[in-house]
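Let us practice reading a record.
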Amino acid sequence: MDEIRATLFSAGLRRLLVEALQDGEQVIWQGQPDGVARMIMWRFLWWIGFPWLLLTVIAIRSDWIDRAAQPLVMLGVAMVAAPLVMLLQDLQTLYVITDRRALILRTAWGRRTASQTSFEAMDAVLEILDIGGGAGHLNFASGRSTRSPDADYTGRYGFRCVRDAPRVRDILEGARAGTMRRSHTQKAAALASAATRNA
Protein backbone atom coordinates (compact mmCIF):
# COMPACT_ATOMS: atom_id res chain seq x y z
CA MET A 1 0.00 0.00 0.00
CA ASP A 2 1.41 3.39 -0.99
CA GLU A 3 1.82 5.98 1.72
CA ILE A 4 0.77 9.59 1.80
CA ARG A 5 3.78 11.83 1.21
CA ALA A 6 4.76 13.56 4.45
CA THR A 7 3.66 17.18 4.08
CA LEU A 8 1.87 19.80 6.15
CA PHE A 9 -1.41 18.37 4.78
CA SER A 10 -0.83 14.66 5.56
CA ALA A 11 -2.52 14.63 8.96
CA GLY A 12 -5.68 16.29 7.63
CA LEU A 13 -5.89 13.81 4.75
CA ARG A 14 -5.47 10.86 7.12
CA ARG A 15 -8.24 12.17 9.39
CA LEU A 16 -10.56 12.64 6.40
CA LEU A 17 -9.81 9.10 5.21
CA VAL A 18 -10.68 7.63 8.61
CA GLU A 19 -13.95 9.58 8.62
CA ALA A 20 -14.83 8.54 5.05
CA LEU A 21 -14.35 4.78 5.53
CA GLN A 22 -17.45 2.70 6.25
CA ASP A 23 -17.62 -0.01 8.92
CA GLY A 24 -15.47 -2.96 7.90
CA GLU A 25 -14.20 -1.24 4.74
CA GLN A 26 -10.56 -1.98 3.96
CA VAL A 27 -8.06 0.23 2.11
CA ILE A 28 -6.30 -1.67 -0.66
CA TRP A 29 -4.28 1.21 -2.14
CA GLN A 30 -3.77 4.92 -1.53
CA GLY A 31 -1.69 7.50 -3.33
CA GLN A 32 -1.50 11.13 -4.36
CA PRO A 33 -1.38 12.88 -7.74
CA ASP A 34 2.05 13.44 -9.24
CA GLY A 35 2.19 17.21 -8.80
CA VAL A 36 5.45 17.57 -10.73
CA ALA A 37 3.94 15.77 -13.75
CA ARG A 38 0.95 18.11 -13.64
CA MET A 39 3.24 21.16 -13.46
CA ILE A 40 5.16 19.89 -16.49
CA MET A 41 1.86 19.33 -18.32
CA TRP A 42 0.92 22.98 -17.71
CA ARG A 43 4.40 24.45 -18.25
CA PHE A 44 3.20 26.25 -21.38
CA LEU A 45 1.62 28.77 -18.97
CA TRP A 46 5.15 29.66 -17.82
CA TRP A 47 6.30 29.98 -21.42
CA ILE A 48 3.54 32.56 -21.93
CA GLY A 49 3.43 34.07 -18.43
CA PHE A 50 7.08 35.03 -17.90
CA PRO A 51 7.47 36.83 -21.29
CA TRP A 52 4.06 38.44 -20.70
CA LEU A 53 5.21 39.83 -17.36
CA LEU A 54 8.53 40.99 -18.84
CA LEU A 55 6.82 42.82 -21.70
CA THR A 56 4.30 44.34 -19.27
CA VAL A 57 7.11 45.67 -17.04
CA ILE A 58 8.89 47.12 -20.08
CA ALA A 59 5.63 48.74 -21.25
CA ILE A 60 4.99 50.25 -17.82
CA ARG A 61 8.55 51.66 -17.55
CA SER A 62 8.31 53.11 -21.05
CA ASP A 63 4.91 54.70 -20.31
CA TRP A 64 3.27 52.79 -23.18
CA ILE A 65 0.37 51.75 -20.99
CA ASP A 66 -1.32 53.45 -18.07
CA ARG A 67 -4.71 52.20 -16.86
CA ALA A 68 -4.27 48.76 -18.43
CA ALA A 69 -1.12 48.04 -16.40
CA GLN A 70 -2.80 46.46 -13.37
CA PRO A 71 -4.99 43.93 -15.26
CA LEU A 72 -2.05 42.97 -17.50
CA VAL A 73 0.23 42.38 -14.50
CA MET A 74 -2.47 40.36 -12.74
CA LEU A 75 -2.99 38.18 -15.81
CA GLY A 76 0.74 37.49 -16.06
CA VAL A 77 0.99 36.63 -12.36
CA ALA A 78 -2.00 34.29 -12.69
CA MET A 79 -0.35 32.41 -15.58
CA VAL A 80 2.92 32.03 -13.67
CA ALA A 81 1.21 31.00 -10.42
CA ALA A 82 -1.32 28.52 -11.89
CA PRO A 83 1.01 25.46 -11.98
CA LEU A 84 2.12 26.17 -8.40
CA VAL A 85 -1.51 26.43 -7.27
CA MET A 86 -2.18 23.06 -8.93
CA LEU A 87 0.78 21.56 -7.07
CA LEU A 88 -0.62 22.83 -3.77
CA GLN A 89 -3.99 21.25 -4.58
CA ASP A 90 -2.31 17.94 -5.45
CA LEU A 91 -0.52 17.93 -2.08
CA GLN A 92 -3.97 18.20 -0.47
CA THR A 93 -5.50 15.35 -2.51
CA LEU A 94 -5.60 11.63 -1.75
CA TYR A 95 -6.72 8.81 -4.04
CA VAL A 96 -7.97 5.65 -2.34
CA ILE A 97 -9.08 2.21 -3.55
CA THR A 98 -10.95 0.13 -0.99
CA ASP A 99 -12.63 -3.26 -1.23
CA ARG A 100 -15.90 -1.45 -2.08
CA ARG A 101 -15.19 1.74 -4.03
CA ALA A 102 -12.77 4.42 -5.19
CA LEU A 103 -12.44 7.63 -3.16
CA ILE A 104 -11.01 11.04 -3.97
CA LEU A 105 -10.37 13.02 -0.78
CA ARG A 106 -9.41 16.69 -0.57
CA THR A 107 -8.61 19.19 2.15
CA ALA A 108 -7.69 21.97 -0.30
CA TRP A 109 -8.33 25.62 0.52
CA GLY A 110 -10.08 24.82 3.81
CA ARG A 111 -12.77 22.66 2.18
CA ARG A 112 -12.89 18.97 3.07
CA THR A 113 -14.49 16.84 0.35
CA ALA A 114 -14.84 13.10 -0.18
CA SER A 115 -16.04 11.92 -3.60
CA GLN A 116 -16.85 8.24 -3.99
CA THR A 117 -17.51 5.93 -6.92
CA SER A 118 -18.78 2.45 -6.16
CA PHE A 119 -17.52 -0.44 -8.28
CA GLU A 120 -21.02 -0.88 -9.72
CA ALA A 121 -21.05 2.74 -10.98
CA MET A 122 -17.72 2.36 -12.82
CA ASP A 123 -17.29 1.81 -16.55
CA ALA A 124 -16.71 -1.76 -17.67
CA VAL A 125 -13.34 -0.79 -19.18
CA LEU A 126 -10.90 1.38 -17.23
CA GLU A 127 -9.10 3.90 -19.45
CA ILE A 128 -5.56 5.24 -19.11
CA LEU A 129 -4.39 8.44 -20.78
CA ASP A 130 -0.60 8.74 -20.64
CA ILE A 131 0.63 12.29 -19.93
CA GLY A 132 4.34 11.49 -19.86
CA GLY A 133 6.85 11.44 -17.06
CA GLY A 134 5.56 8.08 -15.80
CA ALA A 135 2.14 9.51 -14.94
CA GLY A 136 -1.31 9.26 -16.46
CA HIS A 137 -5.01 9.78 -15.95
CA LEU A 138 -6.92 6.66 -14.84
CA ASN A 139 -10.54 7.16 -15.88
CA PHE A 140 -13.03 4.77 -14.32
CA ALA A 141 -16.38 6.56 -14.80
CA SER A 142 -17.97 8.69 -17.50
CA GLY A 143 -20.81 11.17 -17.81
CA ARG A 144 -19.66 13.26 -14.85
CA SER A 145 -19.85 17.04 -14.63
CA THR A 146 -17.01 18.70 -16.51
CA ARG A 147 -16.77 21.20 -13.64
CA SER A 148 -15.25 18.52 -11.44
CA PRO A 149 -11.47 18.86 -11.05
CA ASP A 150 -11.30 15.09 -11.53
CA ALA A 151 -13.13 15.02 -14.88
CA ASP A 152 -11.96 16.03 -18.33
CA TYR A 153 -13.88 18.08 -20.90
CA THR A 154 -15.86 14.97 -21.99
CA GLY A 155 -16.94 14.02 -18.45
CA ARG A 156 -14.50 11.11 -18.06
CA TYR A 157 -13.75 10.90 -14.35
CA GLY A 158 -11.04 9.32 -12.24
CA PHE A 159 -7.61 9.68 -10.73
CA ARG A 160 -5.76 12.54 -12.48
CA CYS A 161 -1.98 12.58 -12.90
CA VAL A 162 -1.49 9.36 -10.97
CA ARG A 163 1.94 7.73 -10.96
CA ASP A 164 2.26 4.28 -12.57
CA ALA A 165 -1.34 4.36 -13.82
CA PRO A 166 -1.26 0.80 -15.30
CA ARG A 167 -0.37 -0.66 -11.89
CA VAL A 168 -3.13 1.34 -10.18
CA ARG A 169 -5.59 0.16 -12.85
CA ASP A 170 -4.60 -3.47 -12.15
CA ILE A 171 -5.17 -2.91 -8.42
CA LEU A 172 -8.59 -1.37 -9.09
CA GLU A 173 -9.57 -4.17 -11.46
CA GLY A 174 -8.46 -6.73 -8.88
CA ALA A 175 -10.52 -5.02 -6.19
CA ARG A 176 -13.57 -5.00 -8.46
CA ALA A 177 -13.09 -8.65 -9.37
CA GLY A 178 -12.79 -9.61 -5.69
CA THR A 179 -16.04 -7.83 -4.89
CA MET A 180 -17.80 -9.46 -7.82
CA ARG A 181 -16.59 -12.90 -6.75
CA ARG A 182 -17.80 -12.30 -3.20
CA SER A 183 -21.20 -11.06 -4.38
CA HIS A 184 -21.67 -14.12 -6.64
CA THR A 185 -20.68 -16.43 -3.78
CA GLN A 186 -23.14 -14.72 -1.44
CA LYS A 187 -25.95 -14.99 -4.03
CA ALA A 188 -25.22 -18.67 -4.56
CA ALA A 189 -25.27 -19.28 -0.81
CA ALA A 190 -28.60 -17.44 -0.51
CA LEU A 191 -30.12 -19.52 -3.34
CA ALA A 192 -28.88 -22.74 -1.76
CA SER A 193 -30.32 -21.69 1.60
CA ALA A 194 -33.69 -20.90 0.01
CA ALA A 195 -33.70 -24.25 -1.82
CA THR A 196 -32.98 -26.06 1.45
CA ARG A 197 -35.86 -24.28 3.18
CA ASN A 198 -38.25 -25.11 0.33
CA ALA A 199 -37.25 -28.82 0.28
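A brief commentary: Residues 183-197 have pLDDT under 50 and may be disordered.
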